[in-house]
Amino acid sequence: MTFHTWWLFLGAVFALSGTPGPNMLHILARSVRVGLRRSGAAMAGCLSAVILVLLASAAGLSAVLLASPVLFDVLRYAGVAYLLVLGIRAWRGDEASITVEGGAGPAPLSLRRLYRDGLLIGLSNPKLLLFASAFLPQFVDPARPQGPQFAILVATFAGAELFWYGVYALGGRKLAAALTRPALKRAFDRLTGAIFVGFGAMLLGAR
User: Fold this and answer.
1) How confident is the model over 110-130, as pLDDT tens digits?
2) With contact defined as beta carbons under 8 Å apart, do 46 and 165 qualify?
3) Is 105 domain-assigned?
4) Distance of alpha carbon 188 from the chain centroid
């Protein structure tokens, strides 16, 4: 892999990672609810999921899913169910109350729970594994050792994701002050819930 190829990959994944999706919406919502600092646990969970998916793709797990439609459907339906549960919870406003960073209100969600939810969100879409298996090899030079190249690509993808997590988390921090008003908080909860349900419906219809 040449330096020029790496730059092309960086540009592609930077644009791809910044596109709003379940991970970014989750980071934004967590930052609004528990503050910028504590949302770092959710970022770590989402990032762990992305790295696991990329490593699994490099290891050939995507070929197993392609060869076993039943297994793929099981994972897909599990992802749909989890996104729908998140959507319903967000719509009802069941989780932590919105707090401003540094405020006196306690954040009831533990760091472990924040990390776990981020991890599950990131793992909820098996289509990501198939996408990674088709995307990453395009930037690998088969004439050179593939292990180091995949390591560079995974690290680059993870770095781009982390950058955008920070951007969305900062956006959530700015929203938090306005969303302390009950009417706006309720509207935010319902919008977030509807988007998560929409992501679930899109995954359900994916083939």
Assistant:
1) 889 899 989 988 887 666 766
2) yes
3) no
4) 19
